[in-house]
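Request: Not sure, any thoughts?
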Amino acid sequence: MANKLQNIKAIQKMLDGTHAFQTKKTHGFTDAKQKAEKNRRREIGEIWEEKINGTIYTIEQQNGFRVKKPKNSVSAEVHNYLNSYPNCKKDCCKTTFGPVDEKMRVIHGMCLDCVIDMEHELKKQGKYEEYERQKMTENAMSWLKRAEQDVEMLKEVYTQASNTVMNADGQLEHWSAKMTSEEFQEKIENEFINFKTKFLENLNKKEKNND
């Protein structure tokens, strides 16, 4: 009687489409191939694409770990652009870049070889001295801007009190400001303003003397 009941239940499951052999997942050649591809040994520096939960990722094998990021990621595109050499000549065949190339990339957006070619061409056209003066002015103004930012940072550090400093016992301490805003302006800010004025005056004189 028990066997008959089990058979009836089995038939009912088959009619409902819920029998074990109907719902059992089978792994074919495609699944095995994907698993083998995923577990394949990769060389350091090797880059490949892999679909994970419906998203395509670009994966790079590092020494003992893997770096994974979504393909066509906006942040990846920005990162690649900032680390590229957009102003290099189209026929520049350089594939490896050193520290000097990196320095030239920040300043000119091109590698050292292309900077040398560009400056050589300016010398032939008689435009190099003008280019050199312009670069010196740009570098001076860039330095001055960084100095202004440093002064602003010092002002925040010296004139603002802090209630969130934690000591060795894990307790919060109150640190008073080292000087008032008026004292900072008198001792540091005004001195920097005088320096900035003289700096710009000297820069303007040099530019006029070179004209």
About this structure: The chain has a mean pLDDT of 75. The first helix runs from residue 2 to 16.
